[in-house]
Specification:
Elements (H helix, E strand, L loop, with lengths): L1 E5 L3 H13 L3 E5 L2 H7 L7 E4 L8 H10 L6 E5 L4 H9 L4 E4 L4 H15 L6 E4 L2 E4 L4 E4 L2 E4 L2 H12 L7 H8 L10 H13 L5 E3 L3 E3 L3
Parallel strand pairs: 1-2, 1-3, 3-4, 4-5
Antiparallel strand pairs: 6-7, 7-8, 8-9, 10-11
Helix pairs in contact: 2-3
The chain binds calcium ion.
């Protein structure tokens, strides 16, 4: 899962990038409001974390403009502004959640999971189809009677596929969603991940649609 972090504070940004990467996410970090709005146009982001006090354009301005332009990326505001009016304004402008700094990383991650669940119409952290089940809280995957905790990249791949069983994702779509800016991507990286998952859970867990991409069966 690829996350856009919009934060101008170096110390907070460094900490969040490290924490999100440790949780298996690819993170791109922008530090001002103008670049944030530009970056939000990229549909590869599963979620945007938006600070409000930003150079260039205030976070509220970025949010308002993004929603006016029809951009639907889920946005979680992270800010030290704790006034009720600010929370109400942020949510009413189209933010999906609002978290006041300072916060603990486990709460941020749980809110991100909850927000993504709501976006996909689920009430629990589990994604399932047929025999396959992915727990988005623990990163455990089960299929064919076998359960294992996936590596960060394996999890990132399976989360994409399991969100939409029966939908074919191309290599480019998968790469866009699991690698951030500046990450070196080997040409066969996606195949290597798929091979590793099939070795553990059986060949039928991910189907290859020749010339189109991959999917999990519905
Ligand atoms: Ca700030």
């Amino acid at each position: 899962m690829r996350v856009l972090l919009i934060e101008d504070d170096k110390q907070i940004g460094d900490g969040l990038v490290a924490a999100l990467k440790a949780a298996g996410m690819a993170v791109d970090w922008v530090r001002d409001g103008v670049m944030a709005l530009e970056a939000l146009r990229d549909p590869a982001y599963a979620i945007g974390l938006l600070d409000l006090g930003l150079p260039g354009a205030d976070g509220m301005t970025v949010l308002k403009a993004a929603r006016q332009q029809g951009l639907e990326t889920p946005i979680l505001i992270i800010t030290a502004r704790d006034a009720i009016e600010s929370r109400v304004t942020g949510l009413d402008l189209g933010a999906d959640d609002y978290l006041v700094k300072p916060f603990e990383v486990p709460e941020l991650l749980a809110r991100m999971r909850a927000l993504l669940r709501r976006r996909t119409g689920r009430a629990t952290p589990r994604l399932s189809t047929g025999e396959a089940m992915l727990d988005t809280a623990t990163h455990q995957f089960s299929c064919g009677g076998h359960t294992e905790t996936l590596s960060a990249r394996e999890y990132a791949l399976m989360q994409i596929l399991m969100e939409r069983p029966g939908h074919i994702f191309s290599r480019a779509q998968i790469e866009d969603r699991i690698y951030g800016w500046g990450e070196e991507v080997e040409s066969n990286a996606v195949e290597v991940l798929i091979h590793s998952i099939r070795r553990k859970f059986g060949k039928g867990v991910i189907l290859n649609i020749r010339g189109a991409g991959w999917m999990v069966p519905k």
